[in-house]
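User: Hey, my collaborator sent me this sequence without any context and asked if I could get a structure. I don't really work with proteins. Can you help?
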Amino acid sequence: MANVSCVAMRGRGVLITGEPGSGKSSLALALLDRGGELVGDDGVALELVDGRVIAHPPEHTAGLIEIRNVGLLEVPVTSAPVAIVIALTPDAERLPLGAGQAMLLGQAVPQVALYPDSPVLALRAEAALEIHGLG
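Assistant: No problem. I've predicted the 3D structure and written it out in structure-token form, which is a compact way to encode the shape of the chain:
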């Protein structure tokens, strides 16, 4: 799956979607700083295993994360079951009444839209994982 990033937080995958330049790599980097492990930046491989969507590092960019205005950083990678989709969009509702759903490989996964331009975006993404993410 191209144009997405994914970070594993405590063994659960946070799949980050959004338009180019919306901050997917920046959010992934911030989640790494909070103890996450990179699955993939600007692409992941998805596989259905026993009804769960598993995100794997993509072959062509495995272990690399883009740091805008700096360059590429090499980091260890892992695989993880996708527990939540974070959709970065300036149209995100301020106080939604629960999570939406994204369909990945025919499986429903909770999805939360977050406003991308926030100094606490990683905290919001982590809270969304805890509140709405699959266990």
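In plain terms: The chain has one domain: 5-132. You can pass these tokens on to your collaborator as they are.
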